[in-house]
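Quick start: read one record
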Amino acid sequence: MSCLRWLLPPSTSPRWAYALTAIVTVSSVPGYAQSLPGKTRAPRVENKAAVTVIQAEDITGRPEREITLNRDAELVKDQTRVKADTACYKQVEDEVQAEGNVRIWRFGDYFTGDALQLNMDTGQGYMLNPTYRLEANHAQGKAERINFLNEDEALVLNGTYSTCQSANPDWYLRSNTLNLDSGRDVGTAGKTIIYFKDVPILGTPALSFSLSGARRSGWLSPMPGFGSKGAAELTVPYYLNIAPNRDLTLYPKIIPRRGFQLGANGRYLGETDGGLYQGETYLEFLPHDKQYIPATPGGSSDRWSVRSHHTQELSSDWSYGWQVRAASDNNYPNDFSKTVSSSTERQLLRELRTDYHGDFWTLTARVQKYQVLQDPESVVDPSLFVSRPYDRLPAINFHAAQYDVAGGFDWAMDSELTRFYHPTLLRGTRMVAIPQLSYPIIGASYFITPKASVNLARYDLDANDATGSKAEQLSRSVPTLSVDAGLVFERPLQLGGKEVTQTLEPRLFYVNTPYRDQSRFPTFDTDAATFNFSQIFSENRFVGSDRIGDANQLTAALVSRFLNEAGAEALRLAFGQRFYFRDQRVQLNSSTPVVDARSDMLLAATGRIAETWGFDSAVQYSPSQSRVVSESYTVQWLPGQKKVLNLGYRYLRNSFKNIDVSSQWPIFQRWYGVGRVSYSMQDKKVLESLIGLEYNSDCWVFRMGAQRFVTTSTKASTPIFFQLELNGLSHLGVGSPLEAMKNSIPGYQRLNEGYGR
C-alpha cells in the first residue's frame, strides 16, 4: 500500500465575516457551546491485550509479519473496527493501511474516507477525505484529512462540524483545524467561520465547545439587547466551570449611555461531614453612571445590586443560611430590570438564620433587616409610598409538638422572642407563648377534634421621642376553644362516560375566643388575614401575634370531590361561610366593632375534567350587599405538544379588574406563535404584553418578538428580542426571548427541549 503525503492548503475564509464578528462581539474571543442533550456517555476503556481479528474474501502475505486483505477486508480489535475494499495489516507494528470505501467504528464514533493508516494499539493514524459522525452528540462533518492522535483525540484539518443530521446541514462551522478530544470532552477549533444556510454569519480566530453537553469554561455567545428604558447594550459573558459542583459566570456589559457594567453569578453545591450546602450569589456594579443624578448633592454615581442565598447543614439536626438583597438606590429596578418581577420588587430582605431541631422540637433564630426602594413617582403620588417593615433584631422561635400521647392527645407549644426595630416608629420586644392541647377522634367516615389553647404575650416597649410615647410594659392572656368536625360520604358515579367516585364532605368549625382590649398594643407585624378557604378554618382572623381576634363563630363548609379510578382528583367543588354569634370588637386600628351576622360566601371549583382541559375558579360573594366582592377564573387548554391556551380573569371590588390571555400555538408547518396580554379593564390600559414567533428546525430554533411591562407607576419598558439558537453550539441574537416566554406563558414548552444550559 502506498504511503500518501498530505499538504494543508491555506484557508480562504471571507474577510467580511470577521468584520461582522468584530461588530457583534467588540473583540474576537473564543466561544462556548452551552447546549446539547444531556446524554451520558460511557467511559472509553480499551483492552490492550485483545487480539486482532481479520477477514476478507482473499488473504495473502507472510504470517506473523504482513497480511494483505482484498475484497471486503475487515479488522476488529476490541472497540475498534475497520472495513475497506483492500487493506494491509502489519502484525508486528499492529498497524493497518486501507484504501477504497474505508469505514471505521471507534467507541460508537463512525468515520468514512478514501484511505486510512491506523495503529490498532496506540490509536494513532490518519484518514483522507473523511466524513465523521460522533456518538456523544450526533455531530457530523467532513474534512480534507483527519489525524488520529490517540483513541480519544482526533485532529480535523480543513473540515466542518454540525449537529444537524441531514447530508446538507442548515448550519455548520468550517475551521482550518478542529481538535475533537472525547477524553477531555472538548472540541477546539482554530480560525473558524459559522455558516447558516451556506451564508457566513460569524467568524472567530478561536472556538471551543463541549462534545457531550457538559459544562466547561469559555466565552458564551455575545448578548446584544436593550435595557429597561430602551437603551442599547452588549453583554459578552464568560463562563468558568470551576468544578463539577461550582461555577462562575462573568457578565461584562457595555451600556453606551451609562458606561461599563460588570456582573458576576456564582453557584455552588457540595457536602461536608455535617451535610449538604448550596448557594448562589449575583452581583452587578456600574461605576460612575453617566446618566444617574444622585439623590443628594455630592452623592455617589456608582450603581450596584446584589442577590445572595446560602443554606448549609452543620450536622443532622443543625443548619444555617442567609438571604441578602440590596441595591445602591431607589431607581435601580427602573433602570436595570429586565423582568416584571424584578422591576416591581421594592422591599429587599436581608436575613441570617439558623435552625436546630430535636425529635419533636425545633428552635429557629434569625435576624432580618429590610431596604426599601421607593417608587420615584411617590413624591407626587403619596399612594405609591412603600412602607418599611420592622426589622427583627433578632427573632427566636421555638416549636414543639407530640401526637397521640397519653391515650390519644396531641399537644403543641409555639413561642417567640422578637426585638422589633424601626428608624421612625415605636420599638420594642415581644414575647409570645401559645400552648395548645387537642384530642382528635377519627373514624372511617368522620372526624372531630376539640382543641384548647391560650395566647400569652408580653411587650416591653421603648420610649420614643418622635412620638412622645414612654417606655412601658403590656401583657395579655387570651384563651381559645375550638371544635373541628366533618363527615365523608362516597358513592360511585358516571361522569363523561367514565367511572368515578364522588365524595360529599360537610365540615363545621367552631371557635370561641373572649374579648380582650388590645387597643394599646402596637402592630409590629400584624395585618388582617385574606379571606379565603384556608383562613376560615383558622382560630385567628389576623396574621401575626399583635392582635388576637375575639370570636364566637361557626364556619360551615361543603366540599365534593370527583376521584378517577386511580384515586386522583378530577374535580373539586367547595362552598363555605362563617356565622358570627357576637360582634367582633378587636380591630387593627379602630375601636368600632364589626357587627355582621355572617361573612361573605366563598365558592370554588377546580379540576381537570379531561386530559386537555384544566380550570380553577374562586368567588367571594356578599349576601348582605348582594354583590360579588372578588372573583378569579383561569382556564388552561393543552390539546397537544407545544399547544397551550390560558384564559384568566381577576376582579377585586374597588381595586382591580384584569383579564389575562396567553398562548403558545403552532401556526403553520414549523412556525409557532407565542403571546400574552394582561389588560386592566378598570384603568383601560395594558399592564403587560408579549408577542413572539418561533421557528423550529431539526437542528436550530429562531425566536423573535417584543415584551412590554411596567417599571414604575407611569413608565413602561418595551424590550425587543430575536435569537438564533444552533442546537449543540450556541445562540446568537438580542435579548433573552426564551426566559421571557417561559415566565409569561404557563405551560410553555421549549421547542428544542433537552438543549441548553
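Confidence is low (pLDDT under 50) at residues 1-41.
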